[in-house]
Amino acid sequence: MYPIYPLYNKKMTMKEQLLSFPAQHQNRQPGFEYEMNPQPLSENPEYKGSGKLTGKVAVISGGDSGIGRAAALAFAREGARVAIIYLNEDKDAEWTKQRIEALGSECLPIRADLRESEASETVAAQVIRHFGGVSILVNNCAVQFVRQSLTEISDDQLLNTFKTNIFSYFYLTRAILPHLTSGSSIINTASVTAYRGSKTLIDYSATKGAIVSLTRSLSQNLVPQGIRVNAVAPGPIWTPLIVASFKEDKVGTFGTDMPMKRPGQPFELAPAYVYLASDDSRYMTGQVLHIGGGEMVES
Fold first, then answer.
1. Fewest C-beta in 10 Å: which of 3, 4, 103, 118?
2. b/e string for 209-234 if b means 16 or more Cβ within 10 A?
3. For residues 224 and 9, what is the distance between their CA atoms, to the nearest angstrom?
4. Do residues 289 and 231 lie in contact, with contact meaning Cβ atoms separated by under 8 Å?
5. Residues 6+ apart with CB under 8 A from 290
6. Distance CA 299, CA 297 (A)
């Protein structure tokens, strides 16, 4: 069996079992995966690719770490070549590149600030120049800032959250779209907070709700072209965004309030991205897959 952290010990008290991760915090956004303790599990070594994405090129924003890295590695196992877009996490991006190459595929890391529309145009040009085409787009980058009240959300924070979490999805999709053809797939990373909200992540939750609406609307717009648009709505997943957002005590019990009593690992989401990227989901568009440790939400 592939190890899943934490491994519960029946001899531990319930309180001890709930303390899943060492208390930690990174005072920066986005966070760095290589500094996390323990580092997230990005891939399942027992996963055997079957060529579902052979010949395809995928572009993944936030592909250096977390969910984006897990999707990139799974895509590589399925035969895709991958471009990962990241802000400034050079060390994480380099690790992801080396791992993709070790899996026998090709990776193009691109450092870019997707909050600016011009950056997406540059990214698209680099991808087309390097790979000659693109068939999968994963919009995945995000930031979140914990605030106890709406009055604590500054104009700068509000703009940063929306530019990172939803404007970048518009910009990158707009730049990549002219290069997509029938059979291509767009996958957006939403969140459970789009459905149940979060009292301390108000602006973040608002962007995730916008992503759901973008997914549904864009899917209707592009269905005549044979381009599918879907989303994944993760629950609590152990990624750099968590240690960069929450205080140490919150990190220590992160995800343990789910029915499964633990947070998810990035590799546990990766097959959902493979499914939405491949022909297996050829009859699905405008939908959201919920992967949240058993939490029930209304779609």
1. 3
2. bbbbebbbebbeebeeeebbbbbbbb
3. 53
4. yes
5. 192, 233, 235, 297, 299
6. 6
CA distance 60 to 138: 5
State the pLDDT at residue 20. 58
* Residue closest to 187 by CA, chosen among 235, 227, 137: 137
Condensed to tens digits (0 to 9), the pLDDT of residues 82-131 reads: 999 999 999 999 999 999 999 999 999 999 999 999 999 999 999 999 99
Give the whole-angstrom CA distance, residue 201 versus residue 198.
Answer: 5
CATH code, residues 51-238+268-291: 3.40.50.720
What is the identity of the amino acid at 290? H
Q: What is the DSSP letter of 271?
A: H
Domain segments of the chain: what residues? 51-238+268-291
Buried b (16+ CB within 10 A) or exposed e, 122-160: ebbebbeeebeebbbbbbbbbbbbebeeeeeeeeeebeb
Residues 6+ away with beta carbon under 8 Å from 277? 52, 53, 56, 58, 75, 80, 136, 138, 185, 187
Tokens 């381009």 locate to 227
- Of 164, 262, 241, 240, the closest CA to residue 206 belongs to 164
DSSP 264: B
Residue 12's alpha-carbon distances to 3, 82, 250, in angstroms, are: 18, 43, 20
Catalytic sites, residue numbers = 204
